[in-house]
Design brief:
Order of helices and strands of chain A: HHHHHHHEHHHEHEEEEHEHH
Radius of gyration of chain B: 24 Å
Radius of gyration of chain A: 34 Å
Strand content of chain A: 5-15%
Helix content of chain B: 40-55%
Largest sheet of chain B: 5 strands, parallel
Number of helices of chain A: 14
Number of helices of chain B: 17
Largest sheet of chain A: 5 strands, mixed
Distance between the termini of chain A: 70 Å
Strand order of the largest sheet of chain A: 3-4-5-7-6
Number of strands of chain A: 7
Oligomer: heterodimer
Structural class of chain B: alpha/beta
Helix content of chain A: 40-55%
Shape of chain A: elongated
Structural class of chain A: alpha+beta
């Protein structure tokens, strides 16, 4: 029996889980028509009259057809269904609480409850419960229960114990389903490729998907997406399968499928919003970028387009920065975009020191110059690292050590 | 040009070194060995950034921005003990010639001096400007001018040296509470002698009054001025007194029209500051006022004599690091006392390079192969250099050094 199961369902029968053992045996019985004692045969035949016996025989179910028996639900099944039900109820309750909370919050913050977005809620909570904790996930939050509580799978099988997903017995139906989908897509692409070769259509490089600029979801993220625990071997297998698919010359046709399991390395949202320049009274275009940061310094940078190469920082010329490194930092965006001498730059920098202020001005300047160059140049700036905030800050001194990395003098004895 | 990004782009140090060594090998094999041609060797017409006029008296605004060469013998006489800033002096050694740019401040002062009525009290010029804009270089140019026009030169190359790095100090035996700098005084007298050797032989320069150094040592009236100088050099004990005497004599001689004196003092504002590194025997730190060598030089910058000129520079670098006043204006640097002393004076500002001067300077550097990088010579490269250095002469030198 086990071997026939294998053939039909491509499953290795694992008897590691006690609960599922009972379920599976039940199902086995159901599948192959092994019934429990039918109640219709309770009375002995010699007590019946002829007509009664004929009627009974007529009404008897056909033995050749397997019939789903009305068997009592096992305890394990009951427990499972109860758990699923409880979870649903719990989520419902949390949801109502959340909705009530939203209304209260709207009341407190005098905002309109209907148009309040999650961003507004986040801001309100940050205002009402200011936290000094470094880890954002440890701070007070108020979010919809779906986002807070880990998602659980809905009931995976019906009352009779028959699973909904065909790959349920693999223990990770979503994961293996994903692999099977990938293989299906691959087979489809192969067929298309064959067609193209037959029709002598040439292949071009843009028929293949470009994977640069994105990376595969991490093991954790994939587990969350599939609501299943993925172990290391499975993750490797996933990557291999997807990569194989992506390497196909026609992989661009299944781009949507592949990109579902990849995340973009580029903060596209931020880059997409290149601000349009405003105009002065005399018609000069200008752009201001505020809040450029580097270490502890902040800078606001204004760039005027038809300019003569003037550079003012805190009302001083470039001699505000005395060391050559700082000066080179702020020159870099102008040289790179070839706008040195063509724009006027006014910057104000506060806090921080020389390196911080010059780094902040450089970032602000690069972000402001985006509005005056074409997209190709913006992309080149991004690749050069000009449009990325330098997140490096001074490392904390740790207790028991003189510095961040410095350890007390090592002594042999 | 953007060294760091090139570095990163070449994927690591090894790649970078490999490529550098390739360039070096290529350079040594393909570029012919060049000897730096001296401007004096050039028989061809001079390039546009060089001036034919090597005599400051003949410099005019048409020479503005051009480089003129100082003869080595003149350099030895005038600047042996200081006068050309050390960084620039090293550059001159590298270039095998001493060339200086003819710039507006110097031309302006020379113009005034040519049209001054020397019967009036000695005019005082005060050179001021941001660090690295050419105050000391202007003074060197004017020294050469004074030398050519037979001025007796009273030159203090950098006054703060006396107060920051005194050779030796001791309590003054004659004046109470004052401290002597005997060796520095001797050194200055040697410098004076060197610069004015051709004039000290002149019989017109004779002492106007008797000077008694001690019971046995007297310089009588009518003796040559050189005698006072020799006395100070030989007798260390009397060196500061000799300086005092010398400068007083020069004032009198100038009044009597027997000579004309040019006083050039760099870092004049140190005389009116509060601190020095000099201590009394009781380890008490003293201000420059209580150092004997200060008073003769402050005295000669007064307006109680004629037939001469006083050129003084004020610089924030004269002060100790901690006491920097972060200003380049005379009033701020001299303080109330100093300003009152020097007032009235003609303030002359030294500025960063103009576009023309910058262009000439780059051309000179290229000629002298101070700049080898081809991108630096290009249009964009020059713009970048101008931006990075803000056309400040000293900064430009520093920025172009690695190129």
């Amino acid at each position: 029996m086990a071997t026939t199961m294998l053939h039909k369902h491509r499953v290795s029968v694992l008897f590691s889980f006690g609960r599922s053992l009972f379920v599976r045996l039940n199902v086995l019985q159901g599948e192959f028509g092994l019934h429990q004692k039918c109640s219709g045969y309770s009375r002995p035949i010699n007590t019946l009259s002829a007509s009664e016996a004929i009627a009974e025989i007529k009404n008897m179910p056909d033995e050749s057809r397997p019939m789903p028996a009305k068997k009592p639900i096992s305890k394990a099944m009951k427990a499972y269904l109860l758990q699923a039900k409880n979870y649903d109820e719990f989520m419902k309750k949390q949801n109502t609480e959340f909705q009530i909370g939203r209304r209260h919050l709207a009341n407190i913050m005098s905002m309109d409850a209907d148009t309040m977005s999650q961003e507004d809620i986040d801001q309100a909570i940050e205002f009402l419960f200011p936290s000094g904790l470094y880890e954002p996930r440890a701070r007070p939050m108020m979010k919809s229960p779906e986002l807070i509580f880990p998602p659980k799978k809905a009931a995976e099988f019906d009352e009779s114990g028959r699973p909904y997903h065909s790959l349920f017995y693999t223990m990770n139906p979503n994961f293996y389903g994903l692999l099977q989908d990938a293989v299906t897509e691959y087979i489809g692409l192969n067929k298309e490729e064959d067609n193209m070769i037959r029709k002598r259509i040439s292949f071009s490089s843009d028929m293949k998907i470009i994977l640069s600029g994105s990376d595969w979801l991490s093991q954790e993220k994939l587990s969350n997406l599939l609501i299943e625990q993925i172990d290391d071997a499975q993750y490797e297998q996933f990557k291999n399968v997807m990569l194989r698919l992506a390497e196909h010359p026609l992989s661009n046709k299944v781009k949507d499928f592949i990109m579902k399991y990849r995340y973009s390395l580029v903060n596209e949202a931020a880059l997409a919003e290149i601000p349009k320049p405003s105009y002065e009274k005399d018609g000069r275009a200008y752009v201001t970028f505020k809040g450029a940061r580097r270490k502890n310094a902040y800078a606001d940078v204004t760039v005027h387009m038809p300019g003569t190469g003037k550079f003012l920082i805190n009302d001083c010329d470039i001699e505000y920065f005395q060391d050559i490194q700082s000066r080179e930092q702020i020159t870099f965006p102008l040289i790179f975009t070839a706008l040195l001498g063509k724009v006027d730059v006014t910057a104000t920098a506060i806090q921080g020191g020389t390196t911080g202020q010059s780094g902040a001005v450089r970032y602000g300047l690069a972000m402001a110059l985006r509005s005056f160059v074409d997209d190709k140049m913006v992309e080149r700036m991004r690749l050069a690292g000009l449009l990325q905030v330098d997140w490096r800050t001074r490392e904390r001194k740790k207790p028991g050590q003189p510095g961040a990395r410095r350890k007390p003098t090592w002594k042999a004895r | 040009m953007i060294g760091k990004s090139v570095f990163r782009a070449l994927n690591g140090r090894q790649e970078f070194v490999k490529r550098c060594s390739k360039i070096v090998i290529r350079a040594s094999s393909t570029v012919p060995q060049m000897s730096l041609p001296l401007s004096s060797e050039n028989s061809n017409p001079l390039p546009f950034f060089r001036s034919k006029q090597n005599s400051p008296s003949l410099h005019g605004s048409n020479n503005s921005g051009q480089f003129y060469t100082i003869d080595p013998s003149i350099k030895k006489q005038l600047f042996l003990y200081g006068g050309i800033p050390k960084t620039y002096d090293d550059l001159c050694k590298t270039f095998k010639e001493t060339c200086m740019m003819i710039r507006e401040p110097a031309l302006e002062i020379m113009d005034y001096m040519k049209s001054t009525n020397f019967n009036n009290a000695a005019t005082r010029y005060c050179l001021y400007g941001k660090i690295g804009t050419g105050k000391s270089m202007t003074m060197a140019h004017l020294l050469h001018y004074g030398f050519e026009n037979n001025f007796v030169i009273v030159h203090v190359p950098w006054a703060p040296y006396w107060y920051k790095f005194p050779k030796e100090y001791s309590d003054c035996p004659t004046k109470e509470g004052m401290v002597d700098l005997p060796l520095d005084a001797v050194a200055w007298l040697i410098h004076f002698k060197n610069q004015n050797s051709h004039l000290l032989a002149d019989p017109k320069l004779s002492v106007c009054q008797d000077w008694e150094w001690s019971k046995r040592e007297i310089t009588k009236k009518g003796a040559p001025l050189a005698e006072i100088v020799e006395m100070g050099i030989n007798r260390v004990k009397h060196s500061t007194n000799c300086i005092e005497a010398l400068l007083q004599e020069l004032k009198q001689l100038s009044d009597l029209k027997r000579c004309k004196t040019l006083v050039v003092i760099d870092g004049f504002n140190i005389f009116f500051s509060d601190k020095t590194k000099i201590k009394t025997a009781a380890f008490e730190k003293i201000p420059p006022k209580r150092v004997t060598i200060t008073s003769p030089f402050v005295d000669i910058t007064k307006q109680d004599w004629s037939n001469g000129a006083v050129i003084v520079s004020v610089d924030d670098l004269a002060f100790f690091r901690k006491d920097e006043r972060n200003t380049h204006y005379p009033r701020g640097l001299l303080g109330a006392e100093g300003f009152e002393h020097l007032d009235p004076f003609i303030p002359i500002e030294t500025k960063n390079y103009s576009e023309k001067e910058f262009h000439y300077c780059i051309e000179y550097f290229l000629d002298r192969r101070w700049i080898i990088n081809p991108h630096a010579a290009s249009e964009e490269g020059r713009k970048e250099l101008a931006f990075l250095s803000n056309c400040n002469p000293f900064n430009l030198l520093k920025v172009t050094a690695p190129l």
